[in-house]
Amino acid sequence: MAYCGALNSHDQYFFNRRAEMVAGSVRPPRLDLSNEALISAHVHAVWLAAVCLPLGRSIEDVIDTADPELKLRDQAKDKIKLKAANRQEVIARVRRVLEADLAMLESSRWHNERWIDRIIDEAPVAFDRAFDRWRELFRAAEKQLTEAQNALRRARRRDEQEEAKRLQDEALRQLNILRQVEGRREESDFYPYRYLASEGFLPGYNFPALPVRVWVPRKEGEFISRPRFLALREFGPHNIVYHEGRKWEVVGFQSPPGGLDERRSRKRICRTCGAYCEPDLDLCPVCGLRFAGENSLLLSLLEMTNVKCRPRERITSDEEERRRRGFEMTTAFRYARTEEGKDNAVEADVVSNGTPVLRLTYAPAATIVRINHRWRSKEQPGFLVDFENGDMIEKAPDVSSLPNRGHRLESVRLFVQDTQNLLLIRFRDESQDTALEAILQYAIQRGCERLFELEESELQAERIGEGERRTILIYEASEGGAGVLRRLVEEADGMARLATEALAHCHFSADGQDLKPSCKAACYDCLMSFSNQQEAHLLDRHKIAPHLLDLTKSRTFLRFGERDWAAHSAYLKSFTDSRSPLEKRFLAKLAKGYLRLPDEAQKSIQEPRCIPDFFYKPDICVFCDGDVHDHPDQKAKDARIRTELQSRGYRVVVIRYDRDLDIQIAEYPEIFGTRSQK
């Protein structure tokens, strides 16, 4: 299948770059292979290049704006239907893009042989849905235009006419920006390729995915985009946005045509562990606690949608104080589910001097919910919103003062959500020292940044939960994820190396000597930062130093369900074949190197009927072949079964008796891990 010709320069550049990537002359950036959404975006990019759909300069070239439902144009609908004859070639191209990392990809918990097929089959629907946010903005602008024109016809006083004309002109400017009628084209958020990347359909690293936008009526007007988690604070009700030397106050939502009610939901937050769930559940899905009034919150939430603002010349002292104190924000989480309906999470124990000190839980592709409860300066939680027109009301007005037109004021809390990798670090001691836990949170965050060479904005952390379930929650906030948190769970010396970096960041040597006596408690070179200034009074590097020293000598051991690492190792040994010393030696090598143990031993597989010696979820079979497997009949049987396993999507690893075990194990770091550096 040849790449398309006769395209405009914008489309041709995109297709040429994708063709180079497929040919192997251009490699994509290093990917976080645990992030399914990011890998899907790269698959979509190859698919879009293969179907040869030119997007042009405006989304209006793809979406039929004359259609009341804003459907795809007929040309686009026809193009995105991939012909059966070309489907296998597209799959081959996707594999070529990912082949350098295919081994690591196959070790992810969500990937299997059918995954690429499914993403390609679902690509036309995903492509159509990616324009839903554009459709929402377009419909909102058209609605404002219609209402303004009707108001202009009804207006009798000059001030009413001027206000209606202002709203009409503003709606026209919004429609022009959405259609790319004028102004900066490739730099606009609504340039088709840039827009699809911001919606997560295509890969994009230089602009936020699924952003929240604010309409600023400056000159011809413009939309400003922010990542959702940042927008929840920056575009919060009545917050002041500084842009191009002027101040703008956020005053309302750009209500979608169906109304804000479509964005409402109710969620129950477990105070004990910080998880959230649907309001009708009686038990917390994470900690199993039975819900009651004192251990959970039942919240009425409004998902943060696009907002609008108005110019402000002066800000009162009360407003300045309110801004200084900021919003009260909290985070909740929910695990993703596996195909078997279980929580997609991996647990590990951090053991120091023979004592478990931390419990780690790594959850890939978990759902993170950030909730904006209120301004800290206000006692009552929630924000007043008029659900009829989207206006944000600062104070509850006197009903008699409201105009005759319909109003529906309700108090709601705002939220956004995203899918990210997260790590929960739970304390194992019974004491509850708030200051120590705060210091440990920032020390771990700084140590992680140093260890994996991350910027401060790439990881976010906060403390959640109560009592014995109190936890430090860390999640990857960068677009596409950093892919580093899983290493802290899977590598035996991961937390030890992190603690070493954190200790150095706190101005201590490896043996605990103070290298910066002038830093009495904390400074901006160690634990303090702009984001944690409200907790600066709690930070004391001397208080955390002995705990970090203990962690530098720690080991991290994976858990397997209810079994810890030692119990699981004994469990696996009990299933080894007494006639196969190779199995015992293989397990011993893994244990000695603190490598990843198999999930199961002697697992029975029905089709093809066989029993691998060891099994790693979801689909890795390990066979330990002694000299009996050199017999011609056995060799032929092995080849037949293992070929069929591979054809059914399993990955087959063979450990031979006549090769060095250390060398063979080192050939599969994506399965067994890497040996501890200590």
Folded structure, characterized:
The protein is of the alpha+beta class. The chain has 4 domains: 1-204, no CATH class; 205-419, no CATH class; 433-558, no CATH class; 565-672, Endonuclease, Chain A (3-Layer(aba) Sandwich), CATH 3.40.960. Helix 7 (132-154) packs antiparallel against helix 8.
How much strand?
15-25%
- How far do the termini sit from each other? 52 Å
Output mean pLDDT. 84
- Category by helix and strand content: alpha+beta
Low-confidence stretches: 1-15, 17-30
Biggest β-sheet, characterized? 12 strands, mixed
Domain module tally: 4
Q: Helix count, per DSSP?
A: 20
Helix content: 25-40%
Number of strands: 21
Shape: globular
Rg = 29 Å
Provide a brief overview of the structure.
The protein is of the alpha+beta class and 678 residues long. Helix content is 35%, strand content 21%.
Secondary-structure blueprint of this entry?
Blueprint: H1 9-23, H2 36-51, H3 74-79, H4 84-98, H5 102-106, H6 115-129, H7 132-154, H8 158-179, H9 192-198, E1 212-216, E2 222-226, H10 228-234, E3 240-243, E4 246-253, E5 264-270, E6 276-277, E7 296-303, E8 307-312, H11 317-325, E9 327-334, E10 346-352, E11 355-375, E12 383-386, E13 392-393, E14 409-427, H12 434-452, E15 459-464, E16 471-476, H13 485-490, H14 494-505, H15 541-552, E17 555-558, H16 565-573, H17 581-592, E18 600-601, E19 614-616, E20 620-625, H18 632-647, E21 651-656, H19 661-666, H20 669-672
Parallel strand pairs: 1-8, 7-14, 20-21
Antiparallel strand pairs: 1-2, 3-4, 4-8, 5-6, 5-7, 9-11, 10-11, 10-17, 11-14, 12-13, 12-14, 14-16, 15-16, 18-19, 19-20
Helix pairs in contact: 2-6, 7-8, 12-14, 14-15
